[in-house]
Amino acid sequence: MQENNSVDINGKKMKIDELVTRYKEMELAERERKARKSAKDQLKPLQAELILLQKHLEDINRRMIIVFEGRDAAGKGGTIRRVTRFMNEKHYRIVALGKPTEEQRTQWYYQKYVSQFPRGGEIVLFDRSWYNRAMVERVFGFCTENEYENFMNGVAGFERDLVRNDTILLKLYFSVTKEEQARRFELRRTDPLKQWKLSEVDLQAQDRWDEFTDVKHEMLKRTSTIDCPWTIIRSNNKDAARLNAVKVILNAVEYQRKDNSIDYVPDPKIVISGARELELMEAQKIERGSFKA
Asked: What does pTM read for this prediction?
């Protein structure tokens, strides 16, 4: 051992505290690598089942819509990429619509979304959807109070008609904590390969956290129905969220499974119903005086 609590490593002096820190970082990185590999190994057979599900929808000529909603940086896009990774590109589409054009502002609100709806045998995955009105537009004042109320009063009927007309509609809400969202934003800010993901809306998401929580509660309360319920995906752990989201999708369609050795049951710590999320949020408000989720 050298003086000043340092050691000699390959001819280079290093303080013991620094050595311990680096060792812990390497140990953590190795655990994360193994966890990612394990998650990938678990995900692959489920992705193979998604191909069978897709083929089943083609065979019976049935439509499916999957709505991906949630806070910014909650992992929606990454999950969509895993869901579609091995699917037949001819029979699915990913829809991520931008701000409405001036022409679209004069149209029926749902019109631009309906124009993207699936044909028979096709799956359409919405990376954000008509629920923009209930969330982002509401928080940032991009819609009027009357437009918001019209949407909230009518969306359940709109979705009920979809389901009644033989469309499978699955609504997923990705839930991330404020601390984890801040960490992901910082990664986007400092990583040149991810900076394009950081928008003006993202930059205000942390400051408006409580407002987004309030509109989330209102959305779940008024739009999670028996016909079209919300499913919440806890997504602080991206790998677990992706794995469990795929399980939820597979369980939404009655197709003939090929691999019965797979565990198709979602983790109840990761996947909860919209009704249960409401109960948790309201209990938190009673206890703390405000929502937490």
From this structure: 0.86
